[in-house]
Amino acid sequence: MDEIEAVLSRHLGRAPAPVELWSRVQAHNECVVRVKQQAHSECVVRVKQCAAANPARGGRRSGFIRAAWFAPAGGLAGFASAAAALLLAAFYFQPASLSSSNAVEIRNWVQVRAGIDLPLRADPPSAIRLTGARVSHRITEVTFEIGGRAGVLRVPAKATHQSYKLACATAEDERLACLLCHSGGDAF
Amino acid sequence: MVLNENDWEVIEGCQQGDPEAFAVLFEAHRDKVYSIALRFSGDPATALDIAQEVFVKLLARIRDFRKGARFETWLYRVVVNTCLDHHKRTRRLLPLLEEALDAIRPGRETALTDLLRLEARDTVQKAVAGLSPEHRVVVVLRYTEELSYEEIAEVLNCSRGTVASRLNRAHKILERKLARFRNG
């Protein structure tokens, strides 16, 4: 029995994973993100359609969903529509991220994902390099680099008034990061 | 193995959807996951499929992982269950595997000739692939991951005695299958 154990120990050791494993996993995850984005778009369309059918309830997104859930317009069809909107909304609030250096793309993506219109300048100073954005149910983040140092602009999802918080490596970076949204004249 | 503080940061990052944290987790465990899949399936292409599935599941389920639990045990369970699921899905292909195993069964002159041409690892790998899934899993966790009987029992959620019994049975089967190889 010792002999068979020795044979098995010798021949069943670890093997290095092929390099392509990472690209396969990544490709799958990107596919999932695309599906989520599509689901979100459908959700937004659905919410807008329902809001149009229920103008009295359509003022606020969360208020609308709550109202539509308890008193759906259009009977069973309306109820199913509201349930679908809720399911899609739950799906949509999963965290997602975008890698991009394009301010317009990031602004549009955040608007679609989080419903927040970040006043990012289309042409931020060349010293600031945007790297992407991330949205979860709690917070929206825009990431950037200044001189190779990472920085982040955070917007809490549940803030009563939209508030922005900058986190940078240095105070100077923080001052410069204001130019992500403000022009030079009104930055400081 | 209980994770240290840095590992927890990585897992928490994954739970919050941080792609960089997931990349770190992937790097730390890719060889382990792939090796188990390879030793279980006996086929590199199948192992790649299984490993991919494991990491996709890992990403989807990591929010369920709670601090204080043993990450490695949790990971092993995901890998083992994925291997077993894959085996169930591809069960109909087993006759082909049986044909391959015929090549290393004793008593056939042509098989012996084939056997001599096979690399040692290939031979052992195929013999292991011919075990039943429950025996195979125990063998892989024991010899690829070098887990103790207790650790295997924890991963498989069974008793130490069950692990010992399955391993003993697997040894006997493999000993018989590999007899010619060992003597040659």
Task: State the main characteristics.
heterodimer, A: 188 residues, alpha+beta, 5-stranded antiparallel β-sheet, 48% helix, elongated, B: 184 residues, mainly alpha, 11 helices, globular
In short:
The complex is a heterodimer of chains A (188) and B (184). By secondary structure, chain A is α+β, with helices and mostly antiparallel strands. Chain A has helices at residues 2-11, 20-53, 61-70, 75-92, 103-114, 171-177, and strands spanning 96-99, 128-135, 139-146, 149-156, 165-167.
| Beta strand count of chain A | 5
Alpha carbon gap, first and last residue of chain A: 78 Å
Strand fraction of chain A: 15-25%
Mean pLDDT of chain B: 81
Order of helices and strands of chain B: HHHHHHHHHHH
Note the total helix count of chain B: 11
Specify the overall morphology of chain A: elongated
Largest interface (CB < 8 Å): A-B, 28 and 36 residues
- The dominant shape of chain B is globular
Distance between the termini of chain B: 40 Å
- Structural class from helices and strands of chain A? alpha+beta
Strands in their spatial order, largest beta sheet of chain A: 1-2-3-4-5
What is the makeup of the main sheet of chain B? none
What is the oligomer described by this structure? heterodimer
What is the strand tally of chain B? 0
Helix content of chain A: 40-55%
Mind telling me the C-alpha Rg of chain B? 18 Å
Strand content of chain B: under 5%
Q: Portion of residues in helices of chain B?
A: over 70%
SSE order of chain A: HHHHEHEEEEH
Query: What can be said about the biggest beta sheet of chain A?
Result: 5 strands, antiparallel
